[in-house]
Each structure stands twice: as C-alpha cells, then as structure tokens.
Design a protein that fits this description.
This protein has 14 helices and 13 strands. It is α/β, with parallel strands linked by helices. The chain has two domains: 127 residues, Aspartate Aminotransferase, domain 1 (Alpha-Beta Complex), CATH 3.90.1150.10; 263 residues, 3-Layer(aba) Sandwich (Aspartate Aminotransferase, domain 2). The strands form three sheets. A seven-stranded mixed sheet has the order 2-8-7-6-5-3-4, with helices on both faces. Strands 9-10-13-12 form a four-stranded antiparallel sheet, covered by helices on one side. The chain starts with 8 loop residues before the first helix and ends in a 15-residue tail after the last helix. This is Kynureninase. Belongs to the kynureninase family.
C-alpha cells in the first residue's frame, strides 16, 4: 500500500486524532514521559490483565481447592477457555489450541510428537536466522533420537544476513527431510515469510511443517484454515501482553488429533478418566491431549484479561494500524535519519513485514543505551539492530515522531560516545 505522510508534529497529532485505537491506550499502564517501543519483547501491563489476575487471586482465597469446580469448571478448563479467545487470531478451531508452559517447552512437545525419523527421512530443516532457543530445542531432539546434529540439521542460509528467500527454503526440501521448523516473522529483521506457499510446498513433498509465531501472534493475523500447518507454537508475553513468562500457546492441526503425544502428562488425559489415577495414559482426542501438567493459573490469568482487548477491537484492526504506524516510522527515518548513518533493515512491503522496524546503525548498541536515558525503551539485537515496535494498542503517532527526533539528536550530538561498548545482560 502507498501511504501519504507529512513531516511535523502537528501531522502526528492529527494521525492520533484519527486513530480508531487511540482510546485503547487508556487500558494500559503507561509511564508518564516514557516512550515504550519494546512490546515485541515484552508487552505492557493492561488494566484488563491486572483485573483478571486479581480475580483468580480472589477466587483462590475464597474457594481454595474448590477453585477447580466453581463457575462450571472454568479454571479446570482454563486452557480451553483461552483457546476460545485465541482462535480468531489464527483462524483455527478452539479444539486445535492449547495454552501451557513456555514456547520452548511447547516446541519440545511438538518435536517429540512430530519428529519420527526413518531411514529415508530423518533430517530437520530450519533457517540460519532463527531465534537460538528454537535451534537448541531442535538439536536436543536430534540428540535424544540418537543422531549426530551435523548429519541431521539443515539450515537455510540468508543471502543478505537479514532475510530469507522462500525459493531457497523450498530448494532445501529434499526427499530426506522429515520436518521443517521456521519462524513466521524473523526476530531481527521483521521479515514475514510466505507461510502458505512454504507450507503447501512442504506438504507436496510429504514433509511435516511447524511454525514459531513468537513475533507475529497478536500483531499479524494468520489464517490457519488456508495455511494449514501441522503445528505451531508461540509465546504470550510479546504482542499478546500476557505478562513476563506468561504461559505459551500451541496449535495442533485437527488432522493430527489422536496422534500419540511425544511427551505425556496427566492434563493430557480425557477429563472423565483423569482422576481415575490409572497408570495407562488415556489421551484426550483433540489438542488438549498434548497438555502436560496442572494449569499455571497466575501465568494464564493476565493473558485471559489481555485477550479481551483483542476480541473487542479485532486483529484486522490491529494489523491495519500496525502497518500504518510502522510505515510512518519508516517515512520519518527516511526523511530525518538516513543521512545520519541509520538504515532500515526490514522489508518495506506490507505483505512481507511484521510489527517492528529493524533500525540499523554502526553504533546501534550505544544508541540504544542513550535512548533509555531519554526515556525511550527500545530493544537491541546483535550485531547492529535497534528493534522499534510501535505496538498498535498503546503507542501513539506523536510518540513515534518524538522518538525520531531523539534518535536524530543522539547521533547529531554524538551522545552515544558517553556509553560503554560492554554488553549488559538484558537490553
């Protein structure tokens, strides 16, 4: 899409007046004077999330063990309830979605279930730009199956160090590939892969394919009825605003219902047999058969509250603003920052980018430190990327404009020179 923008603070304020999501900001806790651009790493706390967590505390305080049976078993079936709220974000059936654990533990469950190597098919295809935890989990599963990583793991390389080419991925779908794991959106460059094309090509070749939605769910709508992946995993603390370490999600395509769960736990049992305490696993016949332990209520409740916002405003509305406000940010970078050594490292086309802008600079690390002293919270990724996420639900156009002014000031006055190059633990 072609967007028409203007420079100047008044234009930014006009965009805020026209923004249909502008009032949604009031449902989040925003620190006065702070510009929060790190929602692609940890989303802000919402009043809805706080109220939902407090409600669970109140029910626990009042009911104790009876919490599992009140409100028609709402808390015992909490994963199912959250699945109902999540289904519109990926256009899937609630029975295909579960909420549990972390994204990495869910990936272990998926790999343990779907990676069934044979003499002819035993390789796993991944990409060289993926988040490290996905690679650790994949290598771990390869080793658990008794293989050598170097004999099994195939990594699609990037031509530019930022993005992947779908044709290169498809070219690596050889006859010995058993499973493919890819990110929907690349965590550094925000590239959105053509999931439908890649999934279709994998299935043509009889290959199982799963997706990591960590950097897209809650920002990019997915249509799993069309894409038709075998499985997917995601975290809930980024765009979904479920809170630090919020329970993650997992999708199992219904054609795999009844498939033997690679990892088994008592919450994967059928409800009618769960408390019979048999040592024979009676697996649930939908995605809930892949659940493991007892629900972590305090890590699920804030997500329950946050998802109310998504269901009210709609993921398509969120995506529309996300594309518009990131395009506005890129426009301002082109106008004000390109001659100061800044470079946009993410794809420009709407169909090929997620919810953040990958701003590159030779001094990106020290600039990110300087931004914090200007009360701007960005996200830094090696080797030279400042990730800026103007999250649609709570970031304003005026904040984006002021952010760019600050970025210009830091470089113009060489403020970054006052900061050390020594890396800190979390940034």
């Amino acid at each position: 899409m072609i967007y028409e923008f203007k420079d100047g603070l008044e234009f930014a304020k006009e965009l805020d007046r026209l923004d249909v999501l502008n009032s949604t900001r009031q449902r989040f806790y925003l620190n006065e004077g702070e510009i929060y651009m790190d929602g692609n790493s940890l989303g802000l706390s919402s009043k809805d999330a706080e109220a939902a967590l407090q409600n669970v505390m109140n029910v626990w305080r009042k009911e104790a063990i009876k919490i599992w049976g009140v409100e028609d078993g709402r808390y015992f079936k909490f994963s199912r309830n959250l699945a109902e709220k999540l289904k519109s974000l990926i256009n899937a059936d609630a029975e295909e979605i579960i909420v549990m654990g972390s994204i990495t533990s869910n990936l272990h469950q998926a790999l343990a279930t779907f990676y069934t190597p044979t003499e002819a098919r035993y390789k796993i295809l991944v990409d060289a730009l993926n988040f490290p935890s996905d690679i650790y989990a994949t290598k771990s599963m390869i080793e658990l199956k008794g293989y050598e990583v170097e004999d099994v793991l195939v990594q699609v390389q990037s031509k530019d160090g930022r993005t992947l080419c779908e044709e290169d991925i498809i070219a690596e779908m050889k006859e010995d590939v058993a499973l493919i794991l890819l990110p929907s959106v690349l965590y550094r460059s925000a590239q959105l892969l053509d999931m439908e094309l890649i999934t279709k090509e994998a299935h043509k070749r009889g290959i199982i394919i799963g997706w990591d939605l960590a950097h897209s769910i809650g920002s990019v709508p997915h249509d799993f009825k069309k894409i038709d992946p075998d499985f997917a995993v995601w975290c809930s603390y980024k765009y979904l605003n479920g809170g630090p370490g919020a329970n993650a999600g997992m999708y199992i395509n219904r054609r795999h219902f009844g498939r033997n769960a690679g990892l088994k736990g008592w919450f994967g049992s059928k409800e009618e047999s769960q408390f019979l305490m048999s040592h024979e696993f009676d697996q649930n016949n939908d995605a809930n058969g892949f659940l493991l332990g007892t629900h972590n209520m305090f890590s699920m409740a804030p997500l329950d509250g946050s998802l109310n916002i998504f269901n009210e405003v709609g993921i398509e509305t969120i995506r529309a603003k996300s594309l518009h406000i990131t395009a506005y940010l890129m426009y301002l970078i082109d106008q004000k920052l390109s001659h100061h050594g800044y470079f946009i490292g993410n794809p420009r086309e709407d169909s090929r980018r997620g919810g953040h802008v990958a701003l590159e600079h030779d001094e990106a690390y020290r600039i990110s430190l300087a931004l914090r002293d200007h009360k701007v919270i960005p996200d830094y990724r090696e080797p030279n990327v400042i990730r800026l996420a103007p999250v649609a639900l709570y970031v304003s156009y005026e904040e984006v404009y002021r952010l760019v002014e600050i970025l210009e000031k830091i470089v113009t006055h060489k403020e970054y020179e006052h900061y050390s190059l020594k890396r800190v633990t979390v940034l």
